[in-house]
UniProtKB/TrEMBL annotation, chain A:
Origin species: Periweissella fabaria
Source organism phylogeny: Bacteria, Bacillati, Bacillota, Bacilli, Lactobacillales
UniProt keyword annotation of Transmembrane helix present: yes
PANTHER family: PUTRESCINE TRANSPORT SYSTEM PERMEASE PROTEIN POTI
Transmembrane parts of this sequence: 12-30, 64-85, 97-123, 129-152, 173-195, 233-252
Protein name: ABC transmembrane type-1 domain-containing protein
Database matches in PROSITE patterns: ABC_TM1
From TrEMBL, chain B:
GO molecular function (one): ATP binding
Taxonomy of the source species: Bacteria, Bacillati, Bacillota, Bacilli, Lactobacillales
Organism: Periweissella fabaria
Residues covered by the ABC transporter domain: 9-239
Pfam families tied to this protein: ABC_tran, TOBE_2
InterPro entries to which the protein is assigned, alphabetical: AAA+_ATPase, ABC_SmlMolc_Importer, ABC_transporter-like_ATP-bd, ABC_transporter-like_CS, Mo/tungstate-bd_C_term_dom, P-loop_NTPase, Transp-assoc_OB_typ2
Annotated keywords: ATP-binding, Nucleotide-binding, Translocase, Transport
Protein name: Spermidine/putrescine import ATP-binding protein PotA
Domain of life: Bacteria
Xref: SMART domains: AAA
TrEMBL record, chain C:
Any Pfam family: BPD_transp_1
Residue ranges of domain ABC transmembrane type-1 in the record: 60-262
InterPro entries hit by this protein: MetI-like, MetI-like_sf
Protein's recorded name: Spermidine/putrescine transport system permease protein PotB
Transmembrane segments: 12-32, 64-86, 93-117, 137-158, 201-221, 241-261
Gene3D superfamilies membership: MetI-like
Membrane topology: Multi-pass membrane protein
Subcellular location: Cell membrane
Protein family membership: Belongs to the binding-protein-dependent transport system permease family. CysTW subfamily.
Organism: Periweissella fabaria
PROSITE patterns in UniProt: ABC_TM1
Entry keyword annotation includes Membrane: yes
Gene this chain is encoded by: potB_1
Superkingdom classification of source: Bacteria
Keywords: Cell membrane, Membrane, Transmembrane, Transmembrane helix, Transport
Length: 264, 365, 269
């Protein structure tokens, strides 16, 4: 019993450690003062600053537009790629493709960033929204593929056989059998690509120009100049959004679980 | 099957191999319309391969496959007038029962009312009228089986292929589905080709059985023919229980085994040809020693419900399985009796054609 | 299946183009840059300089050393935590709580430490109330390691938790049944059976630790130089792309070596 208590308190300690910086950020977003120490009374002044800061709001919007469009395109190309790889019978060929696929997944983001920078420079491609978008699509494709391909592989092949047997052509099989079957994994790949894009700093840092910035890059340059509680307000809002997302996801999965159990 | 009807399916010297493994060797056969056929054999014998060749999921390396007299080797699966009931049902999990059954008719772009009527008719046929809007996950194994049958039949195939469809069901349900399938086939009058490794199931359901082993058809015939006159050791062993001993065919109607001569009903072999002799356990009787053709000692006995299975050993050490209605006692010495009609003689490596010809030669007399 | 060649090409084109343009060409360009000088002629001078100068090689060893420390500390914290976690009743909820911070932008979390660790920050206030005086907590090696551990912790914890969680509980029961003390079970069963999770945890922590460059600037105060920050320096500040690419190639090699030593081997069926 004592051991259990010891273990649980240890875990609790780790959790507290994980959350202290976040709670700290949120608490100080309501500070009336201007730095992350001392306490100048409760105030919404930094939220007002945030909503008046059109530059930051535009960057926030850009970051989300970038994430959603890169994740969507990557989900499409990644799924198509998974369908292509699924059709390869030769094991050796498949493994070669897969190891190339994984290069961008395991490479440190700095090397991805600089190698793309060299690529864009040599191609004479100007750095800005498009170069960042293309880069995010590029590093998200293998993520989607890695979510979709296993699902395709473990898909019951007799479903396709049955559809063919009943007279379905390739297009129908794809749209009515295969896609619905792998849809959850495409969505999972999309969501993962979305979070990777939102979270990316290093790749964006190298391939963006003067005219375009994402949240990560903006925070980096602001943080180098010192603390501004406007950033705290922003993090508090982002944390609230994350919480909301996680909560909805949790509700959705437990609901799906319940439904699955009920229908058994 | 005297009158010559055009076969609905014909295989002419069909062969198939994967990665240097021969799956089918030179297989030829004909399937007539409106019958219940069974492909019976152990796993890996090639029976499911034949099914996949008919449905078009596989294509043959050699030979011709004909459907209604036309070669269909290059016709894709979706264009063949054949449908399949899969072993694991392969129901589309993202669709309701109705949409699963309506899948084929919808692809044919039939009018909505026709589709609805067709689906209802099929669900009625498999006794699932009330299940139209159920999700696949809500069904029991037996119900899934019925939906799979309805879905395949909704496409109005000329031939329905069934790939071990009952193997996942429990014993009672399996028995029930066997008779229902038979009834559905009779009612629709279309050809069923049923694949199974269960010999009891094959004997109970089929008009005609193909016994497969090692990529070849070993024997085909009615259940009774195959049971009574197995062509070789494999068939005799695979279908029912058998006692198989080596013997010599001294002359027509006289065979020697376990050191004794016995009268029998087989003929057409070379004098003193080495053969195998089959005696079915249910054809053997335990009698007092003086009335028996052989003397045996009871070695083991177990109760099987409707009979006793007895293992007896003769003085040469051969084992005899006997099905008896009355119990015996282990260690007792008794006589073993059988008649000439109970002895079935098999030649080594006799082809089916030769077998048929030989039987014709002396039974015709 | 000869009729599907057109469909195959349709599926293949976008994916293969991506592979070519964004995987193969960039690696080729990096190698090309590292093997050329400003005049564009081929040379091994960059690698020669990397090995012989008294700047690069010590920097690389330093970077590996820091990454090792970070990896070791995250492992020491994560393994017991994962073990405790796998025995909890509501572990799905706890797991969610561990994953949640990873959804928050890394830069925001890093930024939080600027406040936490500053001279007048909350930690220093605690120190002074206990009479320990205030300290320079930011912009040194310790703060760099501390924040890096904080950021990488979930990526070590989750794979270890997953592999511990996959262990059949009956195995652990059997171990107790046979008289093993918890410590024996832990060292002889839990640890070896979760080795693949530990290996992926090491991969997920060690490789990024070699390349973190925003942390060295924001938290390390440029006192710490990692391979990543050296690359940034050469590409952005000194604009010597050839040397920068050389360091990037070294980083990729370091990654390859790490992957080799932490690969899953002898997977039994």
């Amino acid at each position: 019993m004592q051991k259990k208590l010891l273990g649980n308190s240890y875990l609790l300690l780790v959790m507290i450690l994980l959350y202290i910086p976040i709670i700290f950020l949120v608490v100080y977003s309501f500070n009336g003062g201007t730095i992350m120490s001392g306490w100048g009374g409760f105030s919404f002044v930094h939220y007002q600053e945030l909503f008046a800061d059109t530059r930051l709001l535009k960057i926030l919007l850009d970051t989300f537009i970038l994430a959603i469009s890169s994740a969507t395109i990557a989900a499409f190309i990644g799924t198509v790629g998974a369908l292509f790889l699924d059709g390869i019978q030769n094991k050796k060929t498949l493994n070669t493709f897969l190891s190339f696929n994984n290069v961008l997944l395991v490479s440190p983001d700095v090397t991805i960033g600089v190698s793309f920078l060299i690529l864009f420079t040599i191609l004479g491609f100007s750095l800005g929204f498009v170069s960042v978008l293309v880069s995010h699509i590029a590093f998200s494709i293998p993520i989607v593929l890695l979510m979709v391909l296993p699902r395709l592989r473990e898909m019951d092949n007799t479903l396709v056989m049955a559809a063919r047997d009943l007279g379905a052509k390739r297009g129908t099989i794809l749209s009515q059998i295969v896609i619905p079957e792998i849809w959850p994994s495409i969505m999972a790949g999309f969501l993962l690509a979305l979070t990777y894009s939102l979270d990316d700093f290093a790749v964006t840092f190298f391939v963006t120009g003067n005219g375009f910035s994402t949240l990560s890059v903006e925070i980096y340059s602001r943080a180098r100049q010192g603390v501004s509680l406007e950033i705290n307000a922003l993090s508090a809002l982002m944390f609230a959004v994350s919480l909301l997302l996680v909560f909805t996801y949790y509700l959705y999965t437990t609901y799906a679980d319940k439904k699955a159990r009920l229908t058994k | 099957m005297d009158k010559k009807v055009l076969p609905v399916i014909e295989f002419k010297n069909v062969g198939l191999s994967f990665d240097n493994n021969t799956i089918l060797k030179n297989v030829s056969f004909e399937i007539e319309a409106g019958q219940f056929y069974t492909l019976l054999g152990p796993s890996g014998s090639g029976k499911s391969t034949i099914l996949n060749l008919i449905s078009g999921q596989l294509s043959a390396d050699a030979g011709e496959i004909l459907f209604d007299g036309k070669v269909i080797n290059n016709i894709p699966a979706e264009s063949r007038r054949v449908n399949t009931v899969f072993q694991n049902y392969a129901l589309f999990p993202n669709m309701t029962v109705f949409d699963n059954v309506a899948f084929g008719p919808k692809l044919k772009k039939l009018p909505k009312d026709t589709i609805k009527a067709k689906v209802r008719e099929m669900l009625a046929l498999v006794k699932l009228e009330a299940f139209e809007n159920r999700a696949i996950q809500e069904l029991s194994g037996g119900q899934k089986q019925r939906v799979a049958i309805a879905r395949a039949l909704a496409n109005e195939p000329d031939v329905l292929l069934l790939d071990e469809p009952l193997s996942a069901l429990d014993y009672k349900l399996r028995k029930q589905m066997q008779s229902e399938l038979r009834a559905i086939q009779k009612r629709l009058g279309i050809t069923f080709i049923f694949v199974t490794h269960d010999q009891e199931e094959a004997l109970a359901m089929s008009d005609w059985i193909f016994i497969m082993n090692d990529g070849k058809i070993q024997q085909n015939g009615t259940p009774v023919d195959i049971y009574d006159e197995p062509i070789n050791h494999f068939v005799a062993d695979f279908i029912g229980e058998s006692n198989i001993v080596n013997g010599v065919m001294k002359q027509d109607y006289l065979v020697n085994f376990v050191g004794k001569d016995f009268e029998n009903l087989d003929a057409g072999m070379r004098p003193n040809e080495a053969v195998e002799v089959v005696l079915r356990p249910e054809d053997l009787d335990l009698v007092p020693i003086e009335q028996g053709k052989l003397v045996v000692t009871i070695a083991d006995q177990s109760f099987r419900g409707d009979f006793y299975e007895i293992t007896a050993i003769d003085d040469d050490g051969n084992e005899w399985k006997v099905q008896a209605t009355n119990p015996s006692s282990v260690g007792a010495r008794v006589g073993l009796d059988f008649g000439p009609e109970d002895i079935h003689v098999m030649r080594f490596n006799e082809s089916e054609d030769d077998f048929d010809a030989r039987i014709e030669s002396y039974e015709g007399e | 299946m000869k009729d599907n060649s057109r469909a195959k090409i349709f599926f293949a084109i976008p994916y293969i183009s991506w592979l070519a343009v964004f995987v193969i060409v960039p690696i080729g360009l990096l190698i090309y840059q590292s093997l050329t000088n400003v005049q564009g002629s081929f040379t091994l001078a960059n690698f020669h300089e990397f090995i012989t100068s008294n700047v690069y090689l010590p920097m690389a060893f330093n970077s590996v050393f820091y990454a090792l420390i970070i990896t070791l500390i995250t492992f020491m914290i994560s393994f017991p935590a994962a073990y405790v976690l796998s025995h909890l009743k509501h572990r799905q909820l706890w797991l969610m709580l561990i994953i949640l911070p990873t959804w928050i932008n890394v830069l925001l979390k890093t930024y939080a430490f600027l406040g936490l660790l500053s001279k007048s920050g909350i930690i220093n206030q605690l120190f002074s109330t206990f009479g320990l005086g205030t300290h320079n907590l930011l912009f040194n090696h310790v703060s760099f390691i501390f924040v890096a551990v904080y950021l990488e912790l979930p990526f070590m914890l989750l794979p270890i938790y997953n592999s511990i969680n996959e262990i059949d509980p009956d195995i652990l029961k059997a171990s107790r049944d046979l008289g093993a003390k918890p410590i024996n079970t832990l060292s002889q069963l839990v640890f070896p059976l979760s080795i693949n999770g530990i290996k992926s945890g090491i991969q997920a922590v060690f490789i990024p630790s070699l390349s973190l460059f925003m942390l060295t600037t924001l938290i390390g105060g440029n006192k710490v130089m990692t391979l990543g920050s050296a690359i940034e320096l050469h590409f952005i500040v000194t604009q010597n792309w050839h040397m920068g690419s050389t360091i990037a190639i070294i980083l990729i090699l370091a990654m390859a070596v790490t992957m080799y030593f932490t690969r899953e081997r002898g997977k039994r069926k």
